[in-house]
Design brief:
By secondary structure, the protein is an alpha/beta fold. The chain contains eleven helices and 13 strands.
Length: 279
C-alpha cells in the first residue's frame, strides 16, 4: 500500500525538502483587507513582515474544504492512503477540514493527524511520516510513530511585542500596556491544543534562557534529540543562538526555521521559539 503525506503551510517546511520527500502542502492564507494571499505561495515571509509595517494587521484563514477534496482526489490515482498532518485543532479548523474532506473522497483512505502544535515542530511529524512512507512503512506504523513522538514533543514561544496579541484579540489592551511598561515577555506553549501562557518573564534574554533550561532538563537524560530554533525576522540572532546551543548540547541536533505569515500575524516580528523531540 502506498501512503501519501499531506500537511499545511504552517509547518514551514522548505519547498526543496517538501519536493525531496514528496510532501504535499495545502496553504493557509493571510487577508489584508480585501486582498488574500496564500502563504508560502503568493506571499513569502520577508515580504509579509514588510507589509505588516505599513498596513493594518491582517486576519488569517484556513483552507477551503474544496482544496483538500481536490488534492485527495488527485492522490487517489496513485495512493491507497493519506496521512494528513495539521496545526493544532485548538487554534485552526484546518484539521477538521481535512477530516471532512477525507469523508467526501472515495477510493483513498484519509487519516488526519492533529499535531496539537504548529510551525516546524509540526514539521517534525511531517518529515518523519514522509521518510517512513518513502521507506515503504505502512500507514499504521507511521501513525504509531507519530503518537510516540507526541510523548516527547515540546515547544515554547516568546512574544517580543505584545501589541500583536492585543490587536489580534488574544490580550486585553490593559494587559498589553502594563506588559510593555514592565517589559514582560510572555513565554507561551501549547496545552490541550491551545496557546496558553507558560510563564511571565521580564526580559527577552531571560525568556530565551528559560527555554534553554527546559530543553536541558529533557536532554540531560543523554537521549538524542532534534530541536528547532524558530524566529520572526531575527535570522542573525537565531543563527547566533543555534551556534551557542550546539556547543552546549552535543546530543541535540539543531535546525533553524521561522514564523511565517499566518503564525507571524498572531505573534509578531521579533518572536522566538524553541521546540524539540526525542529522536
Amino acid at each position: 500500500m502506498k501512503t501519501a503525506v499531506v500537511t499545511d503551510s504552517t509547518a514551514y517546511i522548505p519547498k526543496e525538502l517538501r519536493e525531496q520527500l514528496n510532501i504535499h502542502m495545502i496553504p493557509l492564507s493571510v487577508n489584508f483587507g480585501n486582498e488574500t494571499y496564500k502563504e508560502e505561495i503568493e506571499i513569502q515571509t520577508d515580504d509579509f513582515y514588510e507589509e505588516v509595517k505599513t498596513k493594518e494587521l491582517p486576519t488569517t484563514s484556513q483552507p477551503a474544504i474544496g482544496e483538500f477534496v481536490t488534492l485527495f482526489e488527485q492522490l487517489a490515482k496513485d495512493y491507497d492512503t493519506v496521512i494528513s498532518i495539521h496545526l493544532s485543532s485548538g487554534i485552526s479548523g484546518t484539521f477538521q477540514g481535512a477530516v471532512s474532506a477525507g469523508e467526501m473522497v472515495e477510493g483513498i483512505d484519509v487519516h488526519a493527524f492533529d499535531s496539537e502544535i504548529s510551525c516546524m515542530v509540526q514539521g517534525f511529524y511531517v518529515i518523519e511520516a514522509a521518510e517512513m512512507a518513502k521507506a515503504g512503512k505502512s500507514y499504521k506504523e507511521i501513525l504509531a510513530r507519530l503518537e510516540e513522538m507526541k510523548q516527547s514533543i515540546r515547544a515554547y514561544f516568546m512574544v517580543d511585542d505584545l501589541s500583536h496579541l492585543q490587536r489580534g484579540g488574544r490580550l486585553s489592551s490593559a494587559q498589553a500596556i502594563i506588559g510593555s511598561l514592565l517589559q514582560v515577555k510572555p513565554l507561551l506553549h501549547f496545552e490541550n491544543k491551545l496557546i496558553v501562557p507558560f510563564e511571565k518573564i521580564r526580559t527577552r534574554k531571560r525568556a530565551m534562557k528559560r527555554m534553554v533550561e527546559l530543553l536541558e532538563e529533557d536532554a540531560k537524560s543523554g537521549a538524542e534529540y532534534k530541536a528547532v530554533i524558530i524566529h520572526a525576522k531575527r535570522e542573525d540572532e537565531a543563527n547566533e543562538w543555534k551556534a551557542e546551543l550546539e556547543a552546549k548540547l552535543p546530543n541535540v541536533e539543531f535546525f533553524l526555521s521561522y514564523f511565517g505569515p499566518v503564525i507571524g500575524t498572531h505573534l509578531g516580528e521579533g518572536s522566538m521559539g524553541l521546540g524539540w523531540v526525542k529522536k
